[in-house]
């Protein structure tokens, strides 16, 4: 159905989303472009237009008037400027900064190039995207900036040091902006996603952790990293959320007249998150996170049963409830 009987509303909400080739970005673009009221005009952007088939398949060609796909590499200022030029309405009401990449592994073997990519995309890419559309929002005294953030933006996660550093940076950016932007009726919202069933893990920047690089590490770090990988597998298997569930939280933020600075699609990590405030010196958090990640797989003799789900994840959540 073309939905052609539904008239296109006079004043539509213009939404621009980065990183729409897969995962959250793709899902959100599809949901908004398919909205029965046709009240959204979605600019779904991706750095490589050769990847647009998946998105087109999901919307099945019925959304000529609600969806436009644009090239946008958030690390390329020219690409950002060109995409902004192609927004016909000359305004973006809702900007979704979603493009992001992960990096996992012991810090000693994270290559400079991989770390630089993570910061280029997650930090400078997000800053550049906001810089591009912020002046218009301030001028109109209206707008929403929604960020695909992470539980790892609020608390350190072992073997995700560089990824967390980049996501922490975006928290500082947005919290700082929010203080000023409330004067302009511009709302900044960080969606603090937990583990999600997207291509995110498959798309991690490589640390060469399977290759020879790991061999230069001390055996204790290697053992801890292998425990972490088991924990991570169990966590994604037992606690990962469906993208649809998380998209609901993005939609609520888009629909709300005054969305908060932070939204939490999952309460799973809340006990750990709270420890940071309850114990500002950090010791409680470090102890609890260590227990959460390493306790269930501590002894090497236990490693046989870790092919099963991590019992700490399955039965106790973070173990702090
Ligand atoms: N999945 C999780 O467990 C999880 C948890 C917490 C937070 N998040 C955050 O959620 C966001 C979306 O991730 P996802 O789970 O949907 O994973 P995903 O499927 O890997 O999506 C990431 C998207 O970012 C795009 N991207 C990477 N570099 C880019 C660049 N330079 N310019 C423009 N786009 C770029 C990717 O495009 P290409 O296809 O071209 O690489 C892809 O479309 C990320 O910011 C991530 O940090 C995810």
Automatic annotation (TrEMBL):
Positions with a binding annotation for substrate: 150
Domain of life from the UniProt record: Eukaryota
Polar residues bias locations: 299-310
Disordered: annotated span: 299-321
An annotated Gene Ontology molecular function: estradiol 17-beta-dehydrogenase [NAD(P)+] activity
Annotated InterPro entries: 17beta_DH, NAD(P)-bd_dom_sf, Sc_DH/Rdtase_CS, SDR_fam
Keyword terms, alphabetized: Lipid metabolism, Oxidoreductase
Residues that hold NADP(+) according to the record: 19-47, 73, 167
GO terms classed as biological process: estrogen biosynthetic process
Pfam families, per the entry: adh_short (PF00106)
Family annotation (Gene3D superfamilies): NAD(P)-binding Rossmann-like Domain (3.40.50.720)
Active site (catalytic residues): 163 (proton acceptor)
Recorded GO CC terms: cytosol
PROSITE patterns tied to this protein: ADH_SHORT
Sequence similarity: Belongs to the short-chain dehydrogenases/reductases (SDR) family.
PANTHER family attached to this UniProt entry: 17-BETA-HYDROXYSTEROID DEHYDROGENASE TYPE 1, RETINOL DEHYDROGENASE-RELATED
The name this protein goes by in its record: Hydroxysteroid 17-beta dehydrogenase 1
């Amino acid at each position: 159905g073309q939905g052609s009987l539904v008239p296109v509303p006079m004043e539509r909400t213009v939404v621009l989303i980065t990183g729409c080739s897969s995962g959250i970005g793709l899902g959100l673009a599809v949901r908004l472009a398919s909205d029965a009221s046709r009240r959204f005009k979605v600019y779904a952007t991706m750095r490589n237009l050769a990847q647009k088939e998946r998105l087109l398949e999901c919307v099945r060609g019925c959304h000529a008037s609600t969806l436009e796909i644009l090239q946008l590499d958030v690390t390329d200022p020219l690409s950002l400027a060109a995409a902004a030029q192609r927004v016909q309405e000359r305004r973006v009401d809702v900007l979704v900064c979603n493009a992001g990449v992960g990096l996992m592994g012991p810090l000693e073997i994270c290559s400079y190039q991989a770390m630089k990519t993570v910061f280029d995309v997650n930090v400078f890419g997000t800053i550049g995207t906001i810089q591009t559309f912020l002046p218009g929002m301030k001028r109109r005294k209206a707008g929403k900036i929604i960020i695909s953030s992470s539980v790892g933006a609020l608390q350190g996660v072992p073997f995700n040091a560089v990824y967390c550093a980049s996501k922490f940076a975006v928290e500082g950016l947005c919290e700082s902006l929010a203080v000023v932007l409330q004067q302009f009726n511009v709302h900044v919202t960080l969606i603090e996603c937990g583990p999600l069933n997207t291509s995110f893990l498959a798309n991690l920047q490589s640390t060469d952790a399977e290759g020879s690089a790991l061999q230069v590490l001390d055996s204790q770090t290697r053992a801890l990293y292998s425990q972490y990988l088991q924990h991570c597998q169990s966590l994604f298997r037992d606690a990962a959320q469906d993208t649809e569930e998380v998209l609901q939280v993005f939609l609520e933020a888009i629909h709300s007249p005054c969305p908060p600075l932070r939204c939490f699609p999952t309460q799973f990590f809340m006990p750990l998150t709270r420890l940071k405030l309850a114990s500002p010196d950090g010791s409680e958090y470090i102890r609890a996170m260590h227990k959460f990640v390493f306790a269930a797989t501590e002894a090497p003799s236990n490693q046989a049963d870790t092919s099963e789900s991590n019992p700490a994840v399955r039965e106790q959540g973070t173990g702090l409830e």
